[in-house]
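hey m, so remember when u said the tokens were messed up on ur end? i reran from scratch. heres the input so u can diff it against urs
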Amino acid sequence: MVVPGELWAELPVEKRIFCSVLLFSWAVYLWEAFLARRQRKVYRTTTHVPWELGQIMDSETFEKSRLYQLDKSTFSFWSGLYSELEGTLILLCGGIPFLWNVSGQISGRAGFEPEYEIAQSLVFLLLATLFSAVTGLPWSLYNTFVIEEKHGFNQQTLGFFFKDAVKKFIVTQCILLPVTSLLLYIIKIGGDYFFIYAWLFTLVVSLVLVTIYADYIAPLFDKFIPLPEGELKQAIEMMAKSIDFPLTKVYVVEGSKRSSHSNAYFYGFFKNKRIVLFDTLLEDYSALNKEHPEGEDGEDDDTKSKVKNKKQGCKNEEVLAVLGHELGHWKLGHTIKNIVISQMNSFLCFFLFAVLIGQKELFAAFGFYETQPTLIGLMIVFQFIFSPYNEVLSFCLTVLSRRFEFQADAFAKELGKAKDLYSALIKLNKDNLGFPVSDWIFSMWHYSHPPLLERLQALKDAKQD
């Protein structure tokens, strides 16, 4: 009688690698599905406002947020199942080597011989991202025009959505293809220490993208305008100066043209920092708080005008409290720490890639028996072989992120913003229909920000003081 262990040992190495990748992928999916099922049970059964939330959330908002999150969770289940089945079929049917061969035929017709591996790699990357965009389009449409529309968040028309999608695809290719070609070239000519040069290259690229994103890339999709002179801008500049934050500009982005969700962030290096506020965050600036008389000229045809009964966004004092939290991340070194962790991980991955790239069994496991293309090697190692490590790292970073969030809240408290941050968190949770009750395992695994009640409890003492 052959036991499973003996049968497994008799399999060729490449078959064991392939089966291990597939089994781990489904193990992760089933774990995520288990967590999501626990959270959906919370959404279904928690139909009344818990007593500890009675002072901060009315029953109408609670029910809206419950139904919104329930719809999102159901959508996530089906889209996740489709994604897992699609990935499994691609692996089982040899989709990756098939697409590589098609890419070779296309690049060959363009005059590139098989030895021009980089050209074939770029065609492969273009086709793969196009396939991903096309198969993901129905899910994105449903999410935007059914779920987000149903719950009052979507502000886009169909025309705006498709123009935005095409623009995103083109911009992505304009960045992805040149960067990938240079990376592959560096790996090809780098010799035994190519992993160092590859890591340095990706470090430079990431720093450049972070620097230019809000100035040159984001404005291709949204309108950025300087925050007008006034009380809010003056208060922001004073707060930045008080903590030695080298603020140079403050922008307002018209996020309300696509969604009523709100956000804020800062960017830049050294002495050139900028702050970006979504107009949906600002009660006095949000287009969603302004009534548009019927037939009013100048209304953008690409977006919809929706008049709300309740004002969205935060008052100036609350906006300052939110920024106090964000600036706390900078003052406490969270941004630098995240960059250091990211680059240490990147270096480790490139080093391990250098160790593994010579293993022909890795390529054979995914249908590449005669050739070992560098791009395919990167995909196999980073996406499949490293998947257990990536899951552990992701959880550790989630835990660290929650710690950083508590520290940033504490920093805002030290600035005297505890009361305003307390009310701002409640408003933002309400505006974004966040559900304040969560399953503890789901929260622990997924939430990069602490649950609302935990953050409010940490601020409560200072607020009362």
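this time it looks ok to me. DSSP finds 16 helices and four strands in the chain. if urs says something different then somethings off w ur setup not the seq
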